[in-house]
Design a protein that fits this description.
Blueprint: E1 3-12, E2 15-25, H1 41-48, E3 56-61, E4 64-65, H2 71-76, H3 94-99
Antiparallel strand pairs: 1-2, 1-3, 3-4
Length: about 100
């Protein structure tokens, strides 16, 4: 597996934002993380890219532990983050829009 996430947890005070998230992504595989506002999606991504340190759990990239590394170091290893774009591109297919 290229990316392995095991039992991620993150709380902010008494609010449990992420509880027990585990997933794996193979090279070339596309995976979506969906849910309503407040479900913990952004918190999850922030833990994957090093913006937040999980309270518990681990993130591995190609077998190497990256949990707790600085975002810049994780980015150099190939894990990046983009932010939501609310516009679509009419000249592109649905798949191309999602990839963007």
């Amino acid at each position: 597996m290229t990316l392995e996430v095991s039992d991620l947890h993150k709380s902010f005070g008494g609010v449990q934002a992420v509880s027990g998230v585990s997933l794996s992504v193979a090279a070339g595989e596309l995976l979506a993380l969906i849910g309503p506002n407040g479900a913990g999606k952004s918190t999850c991504f922030n833990m994957l890219n090093g913006q937040l340190r999980p309270d518990r759990g681990s993130v591995k990239l190609k077998g190497q532990e990256i949990t707790g590394l600085a975002p810049r170091r994780i980015w150099r290893m190939g894990v990046g983050r983009t932010f939501q774009i609310t516009a679509t591109f009419a000249s592109m297919s649905v798949l191309e829009n999602v990839q963007m």
